[in-house]
């Protein structure tokens, strides 16, 4: 992890938890706790064991659609927290460190086609093209296809971002 730029730049959840505990001691208050709840079973205080090992996504929305804003909050070292858009080229490398070990950027709005593939009308790579290229099966080794459940997670993330919907 020491060679991965995003792992060095941002705090992990344990660091945030330790800061919260220190704040609670300083202010003589009870620390805030993060928790997970499930309403799938009869007792909402119990986090039930998944019945299968596939990765999925569940939304609770008024119209059944994914939420429009899926931005994340990051905690940089020695800086205030800030929001990163789900369309940021830094988001996937931060979430999937092992798939972007050198901090390579992911798709972004201004990503250009290679000059030999540009036309007068189309010169930018759309999200669907980028992810289709990343997910394509090739004869050479592919870390993304060998990443097991992480591969499933990134596919769910791609679906959430609407990369296979018409843009």
Describe the structure.
With 167 residues, the protein is mostly helical. The protein has one domain. It is built from five helices and two strands, in the order ααββααα. The chain has helices at 5-9, 13-27, 91-95, 127-135, 149-160, and strands spanning 72-74, 82-84. Strand 1 (72-74) and strand 2 (82-84) form a beta hairpin. The longest helix is centred in the N-terminal third of the chain and has 15 residues, at 13-27. The protein is elongated, with a radius of gyration of 20 Å. Mean pLDDT is 75; it is low at 163-167.
Summarize the structure.
By secondary structure, the chain is mainly alpha-helical.
Strand content is under 5%
Q: Mean of the pLDDT scores?
A: 75
Shape: elongated
The number of distinct β-strands equals 2
Roughly what percent helix? 25-40%
Report the C-alpha radius of gyration, rounded.
20 Å
* Side-by-side strand order of the widest sheet: 1-2
Which helices and strands appear, and what pairs or packs with what?
Blueprint: H1 5-9, H2 13-27, E1 72-74, E2 82-84, H3 91-95, H4 127-135, H5 149-160
């Amino acid at each position: 992890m020491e060679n991965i730029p995003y792992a060095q730049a941002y705090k992990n959840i344990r660091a945030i938890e330790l800061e919260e505990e220190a704040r609670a001691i300083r202010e003589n208050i009870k620390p805030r706790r993060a928790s997970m709840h499930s309403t799938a079973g009869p007792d909402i205080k119990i986090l039930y064991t998944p019945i299968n090992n596939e990765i999925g996504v569940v939304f609770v929305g008024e119209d059944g659609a994914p939420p429009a804003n899926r931005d994340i909050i990051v905690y940089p070292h020695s800086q205030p927290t800030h929001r990163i858009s789900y369309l940021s080229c830094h988001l996937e490398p931060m979430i999937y460190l092992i798939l972007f070990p050198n901090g390579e950027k992911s798709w972004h709005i201004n990503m250009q086609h290679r000059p030999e593939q540009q036309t007068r009308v189309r010169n930018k790579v759309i999200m669907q093209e980028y992810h289709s290229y990343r997910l394509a099966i090739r004869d050479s080794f592919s870390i993304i296809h060998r990443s097991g459940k992480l591969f499933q997670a990134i596919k769910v993330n791609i679906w959430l971002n609407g990369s296979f919907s018409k843009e």
